[in-house]
Amino acid sequence: MTQVRRQNFFNTTWGVIKFTAFWLVILLQMPLLLLMPRGKMSVAYMRVFMGILVFFAGIKIRVHGKLSDMRPLMVVCNHISVFELATFPVAFGGSFFGKKDIESWPLVGWVAKKFGVIFVDRRPSHAMDALKCVQDEMNRVDYPMFLFPEGTTTNGAYVKNFKSTLFNFIEDSNVPVQPVVMHYRHRNGAPISDEDMAQHYAYFDNAKQDFGPKCRRERSAFSQVFHIMVLGGFMVEITVLPPPPLAGMDRKEIAATLHKIVSDKYMELKDKRSIK
């Protein structure tokens, strides 16, 4: 099995150069973002902006299948690290529903809102407000909106159960929901072991994992980006599945159905031998 690139002086130095260059290019984008009105144009520009991160991080993207042309469209997917926030806009366009706490992150929160990210508070006490936020946005936009129903990232060994709260509006609407399965590989297409995934590629909180390897050193989002640059990147393989029939289901049935589809396919794909 392919080994993770060993970290040494040369790799670290090259990582520092790429990380510095990345932030310099990002800073050059700030005046444009300040002048650009929030809306369809800024959402479309996210593909360019995130493409810069994908380039410097050395991430290859491989997509199997095609998103539905129906609008509005909610896309649900498993969630392993911060890089989904870059690879999905590059691969598909569109924007996200995100966790409320990210809104307060320095610079990141402001840029995310500029790119059409809608922050929702998923605490049970704010369920009604979150639901209305999702409904309003789905009725307004003409591009796909991505949701990570696990509510957090994982170590990549499994897919957590999907939270059902935000699927309330699906019960009484005709909004199609399309499942997407995403997994990581080494850049040459070889599978990544669960241990290497947890230690190097996934970005998660040990305390929120149900099982599987724990990370010996938890990193911040920024240090995770730097770490991947030192390692030389990886491949994100995205498999688009057809929207399942959800009519007549309540929110918990919808969540369970979508979770089974995504989880079963993820477990099937992640351990397959190298792809060509």
Keywords:
single chain, 276 residues, alpha/beta, 7-stranded mixed β-sheet, 13% strand
Structure, described:
It is a single chain. The chain has 276 residues and is α/β, with parallel strands linked by helices. Helix content is 41%, strand content 13%. The chain has eight helices and seven strands; from the N terminus they run ααββαβαβαββααβα. The protein has a seven-stranded mixed beta sheet with strand order 1-7-6-2-5-3-4, with helices on both faces. α4 links the parallel β3 and β4. α1 runs antiparallel to α2, α1 packs across α7 and α2 crosses α3. The chain is globular, with a radius of gyration of 18 Å. The mean pLDDT is 90.
Number of strands: 7
- Over the alpha carbons, how many angstroms does the gyration radius reach? 18 Å
Helix-strand makeup class? alpha/beta
Query: What is the 3D shape?
Result: globular
Distance between the termini: 15 Å
Strand content: 5-15%
Runs in which pLDDT lies below 50 for 5 or more consecutive residues are: none
Question: What is the H/E order?
Answer: HHEEHEHEHEEHHEH
What's the total helix number? 8
- Identify the quaternary structure here: single chain
> Main beta sheet: strand number and arrangement?
7 strands, mixed
Instruction: State mean pLDDT (0 to 100 scale).
Output: 90
Q: In what order do the strands lie side by side in the largest sheet?
A: 1-7-6-2-5-3-4
Helix content: 40-55%
